[in-house]
C-alpha cells in the first residue's frame, strides 16, 4: 500500500507499506530521499530522465505528465530511469519504454516485462494491469 501527497510533478512525498517494511520517501526535483527506518538515503538523477521507485505507481506518472503521453498524437518514448529497488533501496540505471495505446492507457516495458497502465484525467495511475490498482481517487 502507498499513500502519496503530490505538491507538483517534481515534488511529492509518500509512505509505502509492504509485508516486511515501511518506507518513507520524498522527491524534490533531482533528489529522491528514501528511509526504511535505518536513516535517510539520498539518490540523485545523475543523468537519468526520472526516478522509478519499485512498487510505487506515482513514479510511472512522471514521464506521462512531462511528455504528454495521454494526448492525441503522442509517440512511444524511451527513458533511462534511476530505479530504486525496495526494500534494499539500492539504485541502478534501467531502460524503460512508454508507448501510448490510445485513450488513457500506456504500455510500459522494462527488460522482458510488459504491462498496460491506465491513467486518470490528471495523469495519475488508476490500474497497473495485473500488478496494482488505486483504491481511492
Description:
By secondary structure, this protein is mainly beta. It is built from one helix and twelve strands. The protein has one domain (2-133). It comes from Nocardia terpenica. InterPro entries: Glycolipid-bd_prot_put. This is Glycolipid-binding domain-containing protein.
Tell me the layout of helices and strands.
Layout: E1 2-8, E2 11-17, E3 22-28, E4 31-35, E5 41-44, E6 50-53, H1 58-67, E7 77-84, E8 91-100, E9 105-110, E10 113-119, E11 125-128, E12 132-133
Structural class: mainly beta
Strand content: over 45%
Which segments are poorly predicted (pLDDT under 50) over 5 or more consecutive residues?
A: none
State the order of secondary-structure elements, H for helix, E for strand.
EEEEEEHEEEEEE
Q: Round the mean pLDDT to the nearest integer and report it.
A: 88
Structural shape: globular
Task: State the helical fraction.
Answer: under 10%
- The value of Rg in angstroms is 14 Å
Mind summarizing the main beta sheet? 7 strands, mixed
Total DSSP helices:
1
**Number of separate strands:** 12
Q: Which strand order does the major sheet show?
A: 6-7-8-9-10-11-12
Instruction: Give the termini separation.
Output: 14 Å
| Number of separate structural domains | 1
Protein name: Glycolipid-binding domain-containing protein
InterPro entries: Glycolipid-bd_prot_put
Pfam family, one: Glycolipid_bind
Amino acid at each position: 500500500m502507498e499513500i502519496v501527497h503530490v505538491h507538483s510533478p517534481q515534488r511529492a512525498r509518500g509512505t509505502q507499506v509492504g509485508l516486511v517494511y515501511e518506507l518513507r520517501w520524498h522527491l524534490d526535483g533531482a533528489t529522491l530521499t528514501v528511509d526504511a527506518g535505518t536513516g535517510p538515503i539520498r539518490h540523485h538523477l545523475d543523468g537519468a530522465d526520472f526516478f522509478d521507485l519499485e512498487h510505487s505507481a506515482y513514479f510511472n506518472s512522471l514521464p506521462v505528465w512531462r511528455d504528454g503521453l495521454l494526448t492525441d498524437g503522442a509517440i512511444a518514448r524511451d527513458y533511462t530511469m534511476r530505479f530504486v529497488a525496495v526494500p534494499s533501496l539500492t539504485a541502478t540505471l534501467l531502460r524503460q519504454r512508454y508507448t501510448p495505446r490510445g485513450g488513457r492507457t500506456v504500455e510500459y516495458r522494462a527488460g522482458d516485462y510488459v504491462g498496460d497502465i491506465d491513467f486518470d484525467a490528471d495523469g495519475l495511475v488508476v490500474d497497473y494491469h495485473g500488478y496494482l490498482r488505486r483504491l481511492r481517487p
